[in-house]
């Protein structure tokens, strides 16, 4: 299977790097001729298509990784064919907005952690060809509907918020005179440990939290201060705002189902 990357920006680059780390033959990849394609091609000996028309003609699966606002026009008028798969990673752009008939469309939301093959990626609908590609980048999680996919996409924003929490916590410790490199590693790996416990220990999440939040302990103290400052409500509001943005973008100019 030949994979075309239409849009070689930040996320497209992360996907390419992850696919190559997974052992994918560089000859199986072809890049669109803009963005970071020239640098990537030189670094990994990859092919760059003459234009998007040529990229589509020579690819079995096309990863659409352009800016969301540009996605509909980027795919219009290209030589899509039966049996081809278009995997859009453009947040908020509904399948109905992408005119790629008769190719099949899959929506996916990889994180930039795809670069290190650590991205949990939601996708819809379940198509084996798309799933096989995504599993090279980390765990692939199929969802039951496009509406479910939109809600799950909010987690891609949370990914960035979590990194900001890591940065802020590491900055706080270095402000106390701690060494920066060691604190960055400690804080980042603490978040990894927290995520693994939630993902891998087969115990209800409230029970896991009850084990951590002992009366009078430091976890309880910090959570109480955050709650008094309105953190839980603000977090919910931020998630809701992201979902509203995604839904608004996805419905704009979308054709009826």
UniProtKB/TrEMBL annotation:
Pfam families, A to Z: F420_oxidored (PF03807), P5CR_dimer (PF14748)
SUPFAM superfamilies linked: 6-phosphogluconate dehydrogenase C-terminal domain-like, NAD(P)-binding Rossmann-fold domains
Record carries keyword Membrane: no
Residue stretches making up the Pyrroline-5-carboxylate reductase dimerisation domain: 160-245
Gene Ontology biological process terms from the UniProt entry: L-proline biosynthetic process
Amino acids binding NADPH: 52
Binding site for NADP(+): 6-11, 65-68
Keywords assigned: NADP
Highest rank taxon of the organism: Bacteria
InterPro entries attached to this UniProt entry: 6-PGluconate_DH-like_C_sf, NAD(P)-bd_dom_sf, P5C_Rdtase_cat_N, P5CR_dimer, Pyrroline-COOH_reductase
Keyword Ligase attached: no
Protein name in the entry: Pyrroline-5-carboxylate reductase
Source organism per UniProt: Segnochrobactrum spirostomi
């Amino acid at each position: 299977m030949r994979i075309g990357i239409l849009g070689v920006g930040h996320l497209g680059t992360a996907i390419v790097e992850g696919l190559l780390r997974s052992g994918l033959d560089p000859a199986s990849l072809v890049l669109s001729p803009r963005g970071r394609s020239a640098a990537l091609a030189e670094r990994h000996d990859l092919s760059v298509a003459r234009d998007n028309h040529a990229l589509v003609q020579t690819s079995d699966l096309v990863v659409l990784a352009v800016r969301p606002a540009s996605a509909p026009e980027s795919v219009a008028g290209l030589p899509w064919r039966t049996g081809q798969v278009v995997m859009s990673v453009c947040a908020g752009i509904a399948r109905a907005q992408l005119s790629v008939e008769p190719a099949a469309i899959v929506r996916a939301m990889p994180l930039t952690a795809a670069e290190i093959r650590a991205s949990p990626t939601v996708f819809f609908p379940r198509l084996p060809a798309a799933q096989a590609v995504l599993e090279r980048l980390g765990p692939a999680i199929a969802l039951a509907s496009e509406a479910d996919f939109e809600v799950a996409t909010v987690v891609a924003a949370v990914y960035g918020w979590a990194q900001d929490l890591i940065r802020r916590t590491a900055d706080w410790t270095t402000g106390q005179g701690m060494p920066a490199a060691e604190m960055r590693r400690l804080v980042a790996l603490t978040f990894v440990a927290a995520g693994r416990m939630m993902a891998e220990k087969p115990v209800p999440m409230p029970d896991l939290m009850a084990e951590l939040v002992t009366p009078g302990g430091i976890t309880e103290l910090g959570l109480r201060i955050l709650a008094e400052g309105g953190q839980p409500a603000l977090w919910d509001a931020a998630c809701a705002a992201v979902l509203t943005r995604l839904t608004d973008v996805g419905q704009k100019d979308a054709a009826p189902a």
